[in-house]
Design a protein that fits this description.
This protein is α/β, with parallel strands linked by helices and about 210 residues long. It has a 6-stranded mixed beta sheet with strand order 3-2-4-1-5-6. α3 links the parallel β2 and β3. α4 packs across α5 and α6 packs across α7. It is globular and about 55 Å long.
């Protein structure tokens, strides 16, 4: 990954995407989007393990989802880099509505039709009382589209969620909404996109 530094002279913007570390949840396989949970001790270590690489790429600004798990992740990174993370509501994870806080088994039992659609057409479903992929994509890209107008920073870190980072990567790769779900986003995954004007070049996925 060291060949990503220094920044190419023709690059107008570098986005460094970091998914939050493992959240502290009493129940595994729980559905959480708006649900506010902090990092587990393992999640903290996951983020700390990424600090050497993040220091190498040297972001000049950090934007974060306002959820506890991302804010805590961003604070660990910010403390190591001497930066103050800025919370941005547009970077919050998708709102799962009635699915929030439920296990996947519960959701399948209580909402069998919606669960089937979610598993088979994840970009098409709007969660009961929540959001759909189209709404998530619109708000995330509306924010990232403003980043080139935020001088003097050329390298910007975004600390967010699997769904948010997947939207940004899929947009850079020119993927359809359905194809976006082929992009894995492990906990504490780091990805890098360089923008040459309006042309994105994905340099790293899940480093």
């Amino acid at each position: 990954m060291n060949d990503l530094a220094p920044l190419h002279s023709g690059c107008s913007l570098r986005l460094v995407l970091l998914r939050h570390g493992e959240p502290f949840l009493a129940v595994p396989d729980i559905c959480y989007g708006k649900l506010d949970v902090e990092l587990s001790s393992h999640g903290i270590r996951q983020v700390q393990d990424k600090l050497p690489f993040l220091k190498l790429v040297s972001p000049e600004m950090i934007f974060t989802s306002p959820r506890k798990r991302t804010v805590e992740t961003a604070r660990i990174v910010g403390a190591a880099l001497g930066l103050t993370p800025q919370p941005v509501e547009e970077l919050a994870e998708i709102d799962f509505g009635a699915f929030e806080g439920r296990t996947y088994d519960e959701i399948q039992r209580l909402y069998p039709g919606e669960y089937k659609m979610w598993m088979e057409q994840p970009a098409a479903i709007t969660f009961p009382g929540g959001e759909g992929h189209a709404a998530l994509k619109k708000r995330v890209l509306s924010f990232t589209g403003t980043l080139p107008a935020k001088p003097p920073a050329r390298t910007v870190a975004i600390v967010a969620h699997g769904g948010v980072n997947r939207v940004i990567l899929a947009d850079a790769l020119g993927m359809t909404d359905e194809m976006a779900f082929r992009i894995d986003q492990p906990l504490a995954a780091v990805s890098v996109i360089d923008y040459f004007g309006e042309t994105p070049v994905v340099r790293l996925i899940n480093g």
